[in-house]
Design a protein that fits this description.
- It is a single chain.
- With 188 residues, the protein is mainly alpha-helical.
- The chain is built from eight helices and no strands.
- The protein has helices at residues 11-37, 40-56, 67-92, 104-125, 129-139, 145-152, 156-173, 180-187.
- Mean pLDDT is 75; it is low at 1-7, 91-110 and 178-186.
């Protein structure tokens, strides 16, 4: 598949590319999303959303790699966002019994931890693409370095280097956060 912006000079060319990609990649993208979200219907919704976004933003999206790579990366990111949102909902849906959240000190603690988590997720989102993908696979999917290396067709050493790079960048970005125990729990 071709890459870049403005290659297809009319909507008929793009429509043909879009249809071909949908038929060629849908099944694989669905399987890929399912391995991350573990829900069949949600995996379908994620793939559908990625194709819809591509269609809606076709004039604005600049695909610098291959279309296949773009689609798999978009599905990966969308799937991780879904998993993250589910994890956040489960975290805050815990039954706390008689614990009162309406005291001033408890509100501050909850707001502070949510703010810290948002800062961490923003910092992770700002990592370079390969670094972010490897870091998320390792820390959020709990994948081994060797599994990541095999999946991404890179060496284990490259995975190790990218994880180290991610930690260095995150420490630099989050240096002003005082709760190191909070960061430790989120990162490990």
């Amino acid at each position: 598949m071709e890459t870049g912006k403005g290659i297809y000079t009319n909507s008929a060319e793009f429509r043909k590319l879009f249809e071909n990609c949908f038929h060629e990649y849908y099944e694989g993208l669905h399987r890929y999303a399912f391995t991350i979200v573990k829900e069949n219907e949600q995996a379908k919704d994620i793939v559908q959303a990625v194709f819809c976004k591509w269609w809606e933003k076709r004039d604005d999206i600049n695909i610098e790699t291959s279309v296949k790579s773009y689609l798999y990366t978009a599905v990966y990111n969308q799937s991780l966002n879904h998993v993250r949102n589910i994890k956040n909902r489960k975290t805050f849906a815990v039954d706390f019994g008689d614990y009162k959240f309406d005291t001033p000190e408890n509100k501050v603690d909850l707001e502070h931890s949510t703010e810290l988590e948002c800062k961490l997720m923003n910092a992770i989102d700002d990592l370079p693409t390969q670094c972010r993908i490897i870091f998320l696979k390792c820390k959020f999917e709990k994948r081994k370095y060797s599994e990541i290396a095999t999946e991404l067709n890179i060496s284990v050493k490259t995975v190790e280097v990218q994880i180290g790079k991610a930690y260095k960048i995150l420490r630099g970005r989050l240096i002003n956060i005082t709760s190191s125990s909070f960061l430790f729990l989120l990162l490990f």
